[in-house]
Amino acid sequence: MPDRMVRSAEDVYRELEGHYSHPHRHYHDLRHILACLRHFDTISDQLTWPDAVEMALWFHDVIWEPDADDNERRSAELFLGCAEGDADTNFLEVVHNLVMMTVHPSEPQSVDEQFTVDIDLASFGLPWEEFIRLGELVRNEFPHVSDRDFDSDQLRIFEMLASRPYFYFTEFFRSRYDATAQSNLRRRITQLRRGNA
Predict the structure, then answer these.
(1) Is 115 within the bounds of a domain?
(2) Do 100 and 170 belong together in one domain?
(3) DSSP letter at 124?
(4) With a threshold of 0.90, does the pTM exceed it?
(5) CA-CA distance, 167 to 127, in Å (whole number)?
């Protein structure tokens, strides 16, 4: 039984690596996942169920098609397919729900939900130059979309994020990165509004 579990884990990793290595990915690739996991390592002792959060971070962007509106759902379903039979039902449900929280359907309530969302959006709290560089990587994932249409969509998303009282939900991220994230958002929104004027 242990040998089967080890091989299964290796097979799952290879599948994840294959998805995250698709050539159309420029931001939503393994670098993003590894950046998320570095944040996870920093805050894992504050989580209720760290194994579930770590698994959700691995899977939250595994399906990424730029024009699809169900990437997170398909990513969560892929997790269920990979883990079914090797994890209890509660764990499966929790990870599935954490992956779906990265769609931002509502304000995250539990500590694990809040950290999952904050970790996924941690790049907004980076210095301006790095924030813009990563934004350009996202832009490269939409070569078929005009600059005007892409910028309009970005403006809608950024204005939604800027409307929140705080950008981050956890005190850990809020105290360290919220001011920078809010500044980056305001600056980028101003640029996008000028471009779409």
Answers:
(1) no
(2) no
(3) G
(4) yes
(5) 15
Do 100 and 138 fall within a single domain? no
Q: What is the pLDDT of residues 93-129, one digit of tens each?
A: 999 999 999 998 789 999 999 999 999 999 999 999 9
**What domain range includes position 15?**
1-106
Mean pLDDT for 181-191 is: 97
Residues whose CB is less than 8 angstroms from the CB of residue 71 and which lie 6 or more positions away in sequence, other chains included: 61, 63, 64, 65
CA distance 75 to 63: 5
Place of tokens 């403006």: 155
Which tokens sit at 195?
């471009």
State which of 54, 75, 106 marks the end of a domain.
106
Q: How does pLDDT run across 35-88, given as a tens digit for each residue?
A: 999 999 999 999 999 999 999 999 999 999 999 999 999 999 999 998 877 778
Asked whether residue 175 is domain-assigned, the answer is: yes
Number of domains in the chain: 2
Tokens linked to 196: 């779409």
Long-range contacts of 82-86 (CB under 8 A, 24+ apart): 82/12, 82/15, 83/55, 86/5, 86/8
Q: Which residues on neighbouring strands pair with residue 87, listed in sequence order?
A: 84
Averaged pLDDT score across all residues of the chain = 93
Q: Copy the structure tokens of residue 11.
A: 């097979």
Q: Same structural domain for residues 80 and 136?
A: no
Amino acid letter at 26?
A: H
Asked if residues 4 and 13 have their Cβ atoms less than 8 Å apart, the reply is no
